[in-house]
Amino acid sequence: MSAHCDQIHQPSAASSTPRLLGEVIRLLRPFWRTIFLATAAGGLGGLAMAWALSIINGALVSATSAGALVGLAGLCALSLGGQLIAGIGNSLLGQRIVARLRQDVSARILRAPLSQIEQMKSPRLLAVLNGDVEKIAELGNHFAGYTTALAIVLGCLVYLFLLSVPMVCFALLLVLVGGALNNAAMSHWLARFDKARDLEDQLQKQYRAIIEGAKELRLNRARRLNVEKNGICDLTNRIAALNGRAFAIFWAVDTISIALIFVFVGAVLALRPYLGIENEAITGFIIVMLFAKGPIEELASALPVFSQAQIAFRRISALTATLAEGEAHVDGPRASLRFRHALALAGLRHGFSDTEQEDAFSLDIAHLEIRRGEVTFIVGGNGSGKTTLIKILLGLYQPRSGAVLLDGQLVSRAELDGYRQLFSGVFADYHLFEDLLACPGGEARVNAWLQRLDLAKVLDFQQGRFSTTDLSTGQRKRLAFIHAVLEDRPILMFDEWAADQDPDFRKLFYRQLLPELRNAGKTVIAVSHDDRYFDAADCVIHMSRGCIVGIERHPGYSAGATVSAGEQHIA
Ligand SMILES: Nc1ncnc2c1ncn2[C@@H]1O[C@H](COP(=O)(O)OP(=O)(O)OP(=O)(O)O)[C@@H](O)[C@H]1O
């Protein structure tokens, strides 16, 4: 165990945002073989197509030999084969990149400090996980088509070059004009896509409100109309208008670019007598230009998709940079810590605001000890800091200053994940999982608990899973209790667990379950507002405005007095 308190509790330094290009290279590097194969196959396919066009062009102006036809068939096969390999390769690549992005963002969220996740709020995280990654997936799905189109256009340019150098220069000039137009327009549509993406974060919040606030919104018509009109409708209309304008700019420029091809073809036809170029070259040009129009349009249509993917990638990159620090100890060697005597906090100070405002909440605890094998209640008014204290005790928040001590020794950063494994519990805003990862005592033990907490009639447990979590509020919390107990950790934490229970279960919790846990050698930390049961604790810590204002010990309290040996189920 480390002897340096500041090792644990220093807030991590903010990492600089990694450069976008670096991120792209990092993402693509593992797939370089697929990228190389798909690009080479696509390029070969495009060149073969251009060569085939040259044979078709030759055949139009002169007699066709059998050998030329066989060559044409071979080139068509090569072109199709190349396109097939490029298509499959790029599709697989796109999907693997999306899978990797999803894994990467999820892994960073899983490793981020809890305070960071709480600060970011779920709508922002969900917008990245769902919206932004989907935008990249969209690009991935179309990527094969784009690379094949690019290969065909490049192949056509090579063929045009072989036909007539001055005319290919003229064609390149048109490409440059088209490119410059697109480039100038791109900043306009990018700005609109970017603004629309900002609004997507707000839209996620509204989605959350209409799902999580379903009851309230049905009871309150004014609020429902407000969410519908000023929230959803307004935001979706603004997003649609921004995206619509961006696409309108794109289509205007796209039309001009395609018009340039017709201008070119028209100019060649009109100026044919004056150009002094052979007929074969002229027909070749026109065939190639008309043939390449499709792939050119496809490439142009890729620009907004690329722009949106670029914005999405920037968002993902910004999120991953924010979460980059992570909690290295989460992946460190598994230290199995033992809890023998007591947990303690010393010189602890924690707040949520970066500025030291006078009225900002601050938790200040000079010293606190939680003894092993005791039931400790943390009590106090709303907002007095009970849950914050719990999160620090469980190693979920890194306090601004001060130390968390396990059996008198500081818990180092490297040990923090191991330290957290000493606890299980039910938070006030708990999440209920449907499965049990481990089940010491087997199904029989789980079923006994379901019977005891009157849940056996509404669900059962088979093959490591509970049949449902669609239960009443009190039933869900009882199921969460079973999860916590079956994890068999030395310390159990309950944050206002009994608040949702009927009087019988409340009594069962305070008068039977807690004493049984205590008798089984467990340490229990419970946040409670049930003052009529405060006597069920060995120690009651009273909190007010972030400070401990009193510690009440009940030395005469004995669980054995309330639970007879025959009634003890937990041990
Ligand atoms: N994630 C957070 N970000 C900013 N402030 C927070 C956060 N969590 C809690 N607070 C603030 O910290 C203070 C203490 O909150 P805490 O949840 O610890 O109180 P509590 O004693 O558990 O209250 P209750 O009895 O209502 O559950 C409150 O004033 C609250 O506004």
Automatic annotation (TrEMBL):
UniProt xrefs under InterPro entries: AAA+_ATPase (IPR003593), ABC1_TM_dom (IPR011527), ABC1_TM_sf (IPR036640), ABC_transporter-like_ATP-bd (IPR003439), Cyc_pep_transpt_SyrD/YojI (IPR005898), P-loop_NTPase (IPR027417), Type_1_exporter (IPR039421)
Membrane-topology descriptor: Multi-pass membrane protein
Protein name in UniProt: Putative ATP-binding cassette transporter
Superkingdom classification of source: Bacteria
Keywords: ATP-binding, Membrane, Nucleotide-binding, Transmembrane, Transmembrane helix
Domain ABC transporter: start-end pairs: 337-570
Domain ABC transmembrane type-1 as annotated: residue spans: 36-308
Pfam families found in the cross-reference section: ABC_membrane, ABC_tran
SUPFAM superfamilies for the chain: ABC transporter transmembrane region, P-loop containing nucleoside triphosphate hydrolases
Entry annotated with the keyword Ion transport: no
Location of this chain's protein in the cell: Cell membrane
Membrane-spanning ranges: 35-56, 68-93, 143-164, 170-191, 248-271
